[in-house]
Design goal:
By secondary structure, this protein is of the alpha/beta class. The chain is built from ten helices and twelve strands.
C-alpha cells in the first residue's frame, strides 16, 4: 500500500510575505529621544502578541537621518516635525506615514517651582535664569520666539537668557542640575524627567494659533506649521520588511498606541490634521 500524500497548509499571509521578499528578520525602528520610551513600550506589547521582534534604536533625529542615508537597513522612522520633511529634503523616500501623537511646548521649572513661575511674563522678572533653544536648530526655538512676542516680553526674556542649546534635552538637564530657573521643552520631556522637573502650562491664547500665524518658511525645509507639531511614524521605501513594518506602524498609530503616548506625556493627534506630507516612492508591487 503506497503512503498517503502529505499536504502542507501554508497561511496566505506567509505566502504573501515570501512573495514580497520579507526576509523574516526583526523590524528595525529608529526613534527620536522623546519618542523612545513610548516606542519601546509599544514594541514590547506588539512582540508579546505577535512574536514579531521590533528593534528600537534611538538617537538625535539628524543622526538617525544620516544613518538611514548611509546604512539603508532601517524600516521605520519615528520623529516629530520637521524631521520627516528633512528626510524628504535629503532624498530619502517614504512609502507611507501615520500621525501617532503630537507635542506641546511647556515652561519647565524645577520640582516644586521654587521661583514661583506661573507664566511667560514671570520669565521677564529680573534675575530669572532662562534657557532657550536655538531657532536655527530646533522648532521649539521658533515656537518660543512667537509666543514671547505674543506675550510682549520677548526683549525682557532675551535679556535673562543664560544658556542656548540645540535641543530641549540639554536645557532640561541644565535645569535639573540647577543651572537654570526655567526653560521651554516638550511636555513629554518634562514627563520623562518628572522626578526633577514640572511643567507650567502656557495658555492657548499665547500659543501659536492654527493657520497662517503659525506657518513659517524654513530655508531648507520649506513651510513648517508651529501650531501643531506632529509625531509621525514613517515606513521607509527601502524597507526589506515592509509588510511587518507597516503592521507595527499601524499599531503605533492606533487608539491603543495613542493611549501609550498620552500616558508618557504627549498630546493627542488632531483628528482633522492629515498625516505628514511625504515624498512617496514608486509602489514596486507593494512588497
Amino acid at each position: 500500500m503506497s503512503p498517503r500524500p502529505i499536504f502542507l497548509v501554508i497561511a496566505p499571509s506567509l505566502l504573501l510575505s515570501v512573495a514580497r521578499g520579507d526576509d523574516g528578520t526583526p523590524v528595525h525602528c529608529l526613534a527620536g529621544p522623546s519618542m523612545k520610551a513610548s516606542i519601546e513600550e509599544l514594541a514590547r506589547i506588539y512582540e508579546s502578541r505577535t512574536g514579531v521582534r521590533i528593534i528600537v534604536e534611538s538617537n538625535d533625529p539628524r543622526s538617525l537621518i544620516s544613518e538611514i542615508k548611509v546604512d539603508g537597513d532601517a524600516d521605520l522612522f519615528v520623529s516629530h516635525d520637521p524631521f520627516l520633511a528633512m528626510l524628504a529634503r535629503d532624498g530619502v523616500k517614504v512609502r507611507q506615514a501615520w500621525n501617532a501623537a503630537s507635542l506641546s511646548p511647556v515652561i519647565a521649572v524645577a520640582k516644586g517651582n521654587p521661583k514661583g513661575i506661573r507664566g511667560l511674563k514671570d520669565l521677564a522678572r529680573p534675575g530669572i535664569r532662562v534657557g532657550l533653544t536655538d531657532p536655527n536648530m530646533a522648532i521649539t526655538g521658533n515656537i518660543i520666539t512667537l509666543m514671547l512676542k505674543k506675550a510682549g516680553v520677548d526683549r525682557e526674556v532675551d535679556a535673562n537668557v543664560v544658556k542656548r542649546a540645540a535641543n530641549g534635552r540639554d536645557l532640561g538637564a541644565a535645569l535639573a542640575a540647577g543651572e537654570l530657573d526655567a526653560t521651554f521643552v516638550w511636555n513629554a520631556v518634562v514627563h520623562a524627567n518628572r522626578e526633577k522637573l514640572e511643567a507650567v502650562d502656557i495658555p492657548e491664547d499665547q500659543r501659536p494659533s492654527r493657520g497662517a500665524e503659525s506657518m513659517m518658511h524654513h530655508p531648507s525645509l520649506g513651510r513648517i506649521e508651529l501650531g501643531h507639531v506632529r509625531v509621525t511614524v514613517a515606513l521607509l521605501a527601502a524597507s526589506r520588511r515592509a509588510d511587518r513594518s507597516r503592521a507595527f506602524a499601524e499599531f503605533v498609530a492606533s487608539p491603543e498606541g495613542a493611549a501609550v503616548f498620552r500616558a508618557n506625556g504627549f498630546s493627542p493627534v488632531d483628528p482633522g490634521r492629515p498625516p505628514a506630507t511625504v515624498s512617496p516612492a514608486p509602489d514596486r508591487g507593494r512588497r
